[in-house]
Amino acid sequence: MTQPTDIQGEHLPTALSLAASGVPVLPLRAGKVPFGNCTACADNGCSGRPNMKTPGPCRCPGVCHAWAAATTDPAVIVSPPWAAAWRRAVCVGYHPGGAGLTVVDLDNADAIAWARTALPATRTVPTTRGEHWIYRGAMASRNAVRPGVDIKSNMAYARWLGPGTGVMAALPDAVRALAVKEPPTVRPAPAGVMPAGARDGECRHRTPAYLDRGIAMAEQRITEASSAVHATVYRTFLAVLSTHGRCGCLTDTHVARLFTAAQSKGETPRHCADAWTNARTTLGL
Q1: Sequence-distant (≥ 6) Cβ neighbours of residue 84 within 8 angstroms
Q2: How many CA atoms lie within 13 A of 179 on its CB side?
Q3: Of residues 142, 235, 228, 146, the one with CA closest to residue 182
Q4: Looking at residue 56, what is its pLDDT?
C-alpha cells in the first residue's frame, strides 16, 4: 500500500483519521469544490453512478464524483488514483449523510442569530463567514432553506473545519421541516375541459427517465420522513399528481410504489387511499 508520506499531501493525515472514525472523506480543490470527472467518467460514461441521483458510494476508483466518491477505506484514500488529488487539495471534504450527520450551514451573523432562537443547541464549528451546526442523524439536503441557511447531509459534502465544540444533539424535527418543499400551486382545470396531452394518454413532457426519476424521488422523500409522516405523504402525493395527474402517464404500478413507501412508514392502506383522494380533489382531478 502507498504510504501517506509518499503522497505529499498535508491533508492526508486528517483524512485518514476521519475515515478511521467512520466519516467518509474526499479531497477538495481550489474553491473548496470537488475534482472534476476523469476522462473515463466524462459525460457520465462510467459504470458507476451516472448523475449521482441516489445515496451511496460510487464504483469508480477515482475521486471525481463529489460526495459519492467519499470513502472510509484507507486503501482507496492512499491509492494512485487519489494521490494526485491529495497533492492538489486545499482542504478535506466529507459526506455528512454517510457519517449519519446533518450540517446546518449558517452563512452569516443573521443566520446564526436565527438558529440560536429556532434550533436546539448542538456542536458548532466556526466557518469563514458563519458556523456549521452539526446534528446526529441524516436527512435530505437542501440549499437556501431560508436566507443564509443551507442543509448538508445525504448527497452533499461539507468542508472539514475541525471537531467543533459542544455536545452533538439528535437531529430535530425543526431542521427536517426546513427541507420539506411546499407543493406547487396548481389551478384546477375547469370542469369538462381535458388538459392538453391527456387525450391520447401521453405526457407532453415525459422522457423515458423523467417519470421514473420523479417517482423514485417521491419514494425517497416519504421513506426519509422521521416525523409528520401523514403530512409528508399527502404533500408528496400532491406534488406527483400536480406534475403527472392530468397526463394519463401514471400507472397502477407507479401508485403502488408510492403506497408501498408510505406503508413502510406505518401508513395504512386506508390512509394512503384517503391521502391520494384528497390530493386529487385538491387539484380538481
Answers
A1: none
A2: 25
A3: 235
A4: 59
Distant-in-sequence, close-in-space partners of 193: CB < 8 Å, separation ≥ 6: none
Amino acid identity at 260: T
pLDDT single digits (tens) 166-213: 999 999 989 988 887 654 443 443 333 333 334 444 555 556 567 777
The most distant pair of C-alpha atoms in the chain lies apart, rounded to whole Å, by 74
3-state class (DSSP) for residue 142: strand
247: which DSSP letter?
T
Which residue reads 484514500 in cell numbers?
Answer: 77
d(C-alpha 234, C-alpha 183), whole Å:
10
**CA distances to 37, 188, 200, 244 from 192, in Å:** 51, 11, 16, 18
Is the Cβ–Cβ distance between 129 and 173 less than 8 Å?
A: no
Question: How does pLDDT run across 42-69, given as a tens digit for each residue?
Answer: 655 554 444 444 555 666 777 888 888 8
Contact 19, 73 (CB under 8 A): yes
Q: Are 117 and 89 in contact (CB under 8 A)?
A: no
What is the number of other CB atoms lying within 10 angstroms of the CB of residue 231?
Answer: 13
Contacting residues for 20 by C-beta, under 8 A, at least 6 apart: 72, 74
Q: Which of 281, 275, 280 is nearest to 250 (CA)?
A: 280
